Each structure stands twice: as structure tokens, then as C-alpha cells.
Amino acid sequence: MTREPQVSEIVQSISTLALASPALRSLGVVWTWDGLDRLMRRHAARLARLGVQAGDRVVVCAESSAAHVAVVLAHLRLGVVHVPANTRYGADELAHVIGDSGARLVLRDEDLHALEDPAHESIATWPEPPSRDALAMLIYTSGTTGRPKGVMLSHRALGANLGAMMRLWEIGPRDRVIAALPLFHVHGLGLALLGPLVAGAEVELIPRFTVDAVVSALDQGATVFMGVPTMYHLLLERLETDASACASLAGARLFTAGSAALSQRDFERFERATGHRILERYGMTETLFTLSNPYRGERRPGAVGQPVPGVTLRLVDEYGADAGTGPGEIEVQSDGLMDGYWGRADATREAFRAAPDDASTKEGDLRGAWFRTGDTAVIDAGSWRILGRTSTDIIKSGGYKIGAGEIEDVLMASGRFAECAVLGVPDAKWGEVVGAVVVLREGQAAVDAELVAHLERHLVDAKRPRRWAFVEALPRNAMGKVKKAELRACFG
Fold this sequence. Notes:
This protein is of the alpha/beta class and 492 residues long. The protein has three domains: 7-208, Rossmann fold; 288-387, Luciferase, Domain 3 (Luciferase, domain 3, Roll); 392-491, 2-Layer Sandwich (GMP Synthetase, Chain A, domain 3), CATH 3.30.300. It contains 15 helices and 24 strands. Strand 3, helix 3 and strand 4 (81-84) form a beta-alpha-beta unit.
């Protein structure tokens, strides 16, 4: 079996053989591989001057830019461990990432901009690429269940998974991919940036997402847009009043969505406006990208398709037994899995379940073990559908397990709400009942007979909200995911 080339090897070959070809567009400037290579060499010289070696961790907390891209590529090429940090971190949060990772160096915007000064020294030759099993990145979790943990991703994991995704979506030299997602998250850094670059595509880097910037890029020839549901919701506000924007998007080849569930309503609205059916996928930092709707074939709203090549999935019940087509928790085996949590052997052990047919699985050896995602899903007509986080999106009421996503789709289909989130509210009789936190659209009434009738048509009694909370906006993280844990306070 031919092994998947690692990212650093692909970067090496592209930067050697295609020096004059466009690699990146950013803020109106086109960067060839030759131009990026010069920035990479300047950064490599700086690292050498500061004594940074392969295996050392370097934290980067900076906005998206061409220099930022060059720094990422240089780290991968040198074997330096890249540690992206959320630019919205407060001082304590950033200090945790720096201290926990044992970072040798921290880079901010001013450090990256300095690379554009041609007076800087640069290295003449690159060393040999790092090994496949070497640590490539340390990406910190969002910290919703405690202090953020560093997810260890190897060169092998990145090469295997990103390569499979690019082939699955047929991304290559003919494409210009819009990268409008932040580079501190695996979706933006891996799928929207590194994947297309190593596949030979050109990347259009948008430092901060705006509807105008995305529409303009598509109007000028970009072919692929990778976004999250919040971005599509904002795009739809423009599309419903701007025929020229619809035409710009209609000319693209592919739109993908991930990081959170896309509502069926927005899926259908987008198809009506552009003629495109958004391709949804599923994954997480610890597993990279594991499920995807097909590029060629049916894309079903609310579903995330089938396992990505090289990924094995199963559904299990709360005791770890086979749950068939579900509902059950998703568990994963693949070459794209993390090597564990940095410095957290306890958390790593808790995150994996040893395969029952592999008695040789030992502590510290994750081969043959299954990663426990904490997400509940069902398999419907061969296609996987995510019901939500087992801890927050699965409501246990009167002995039944209810998925929050289905109820949220029904609420949004009423046309009454700008945003909504459904979660379980503790109840003495039923264990939990359905609670809905909603943002009313302008001019809309709250709960009335018309809404009740809508809910009765689409939901059985146990799935209808019993508790309501009305807010001005839902709390979201940088990737648009609703922070449901914070919403429990709405119900006291």
C-alpha cells in the first residue's frame, strides 16, 4: 500500500517545482510559491538565530496574513511544532496555552509583519523533512469542559486526512479556494488552507470574513468556499435582496460547511438562491475530518454523508456495545487521529476505548483503540446524521432520547426566529423537558396559537418546547458554535 506523503514533503516539492505559480492571494496581492518561500526562509533564519529547533513549540497568536501562512509552512517544513492561539484569547487564556505547551517562542502580528522586510537574513538550504510520526501541531480545544487541552497532531495524521479530503472533493490546480476561516482552528488551518495548498490549488485568504469580501472573490473567479453555518446565514441575507450576488455565487464549483450543524431551512434557501447544494461534513480537532457528503452524488440536508476514505466509524450505546444504526455515540479509528492530549495522559485514556478484539492495547499505545467523540448520531438510509453532543444536545425526557437539532430545524422553519438553541431543562417529573432559547426576528410575536399549531404539525408532544427564553443574541465561539452550557442560566 502506497503511503500518504506528509505535508512537509508536499510543501517541499511544490516550492521547488512550481516557484512562479500563484499560491496565495491576500488583500489584493498575489503571492507565488517563490514569494512565500522567501518569507519561509526568513522565518527559518530567525528561528535558527533564536535557537529554536525541531520539536520545539512555537505559539502564533496573530491575524491571517501571507506572512502567517509562510510561518505555518516553515514550521511544518522544519519540524517545529506549530501552536495556533485564538486571537480573541484574554491574557490568562493565552498564558495557559504558552505555559501548558512549554512554548520556546511566541509570535504576534508585529513579528510576522517583520518577515516582509527584505533586509532580513534567510537560510540558503532546507534540512531534511521531519519524520511522519513527528508532532506537527498542537491545537488547543475550546475549553467548554475545563481548561483547554492541547491536541497532538502528527505529520502522518495531517497528510493522510487532508490528502483524502482533497481527493474526495476533487480539489486541485484548477481551483481557487476562499479561506475566510480563522487560522487558529483546524477547519480554517487544515481544510481551507493547508489542504488546498498541498493539492496545488490557489488560496484566496480573507483575513476577516465579510459578505462583501466573499462575494467579490467569487465574482473574480474563486471556485470553492468553505464556511460555517453563521457565514451562510449572513450570505443569505444578501442573496435574498441582491440578484448580482446570486449570480456571483452560482458560478462557483463547490460550497462546503462544517464545525456546526447547518439548518435545513438555510440549506434549502441557499439552493434556491444559487442552485448549489451545500456539501456538509463532520469532524473535530481530535479526529480531523471523518464524515462527508459526496462531491458527486446526493447531498441530503441535515446529513453528513459517509466515512471519509481511511476512516472507520461505529456507533455504541452508553455501555460501549454495538448500537447498529443508532442512535449511539460515534467512535473513530483512522490515521488522522490525534496522538493524545499534550501532558494529559489521564484525559487521553478517558478519550479512548480499547477495541474489544485487541487485548494487546496498552496504556500509551492508541493503535487498535477507538476515540470517543461525545457526539450522538444515527445512520439513515446509509447516510450519517449527527443528533448533537451527547452531553448538551441529547435531551433525556421520560425515558426517551430527543435530539435538539430536529427541534431547532422546526423552530427555524416557522420563520419567526433569527436564531434558536434547544437544550434539556431539569424537570422533577420527566427528568428533562425541552427548553428553547430564541432570538425573535424583527416584528415577530412570541409564542402564540399560530406557533403552537406549527409545532403540533411537526413534533410529537415530548419534543415540543415546554420552557422558553427570549434573548437578543446567542453566545457563540469563533467558529459559530452556540455555547449551550452558558444558556442553562436562562432557565434558572
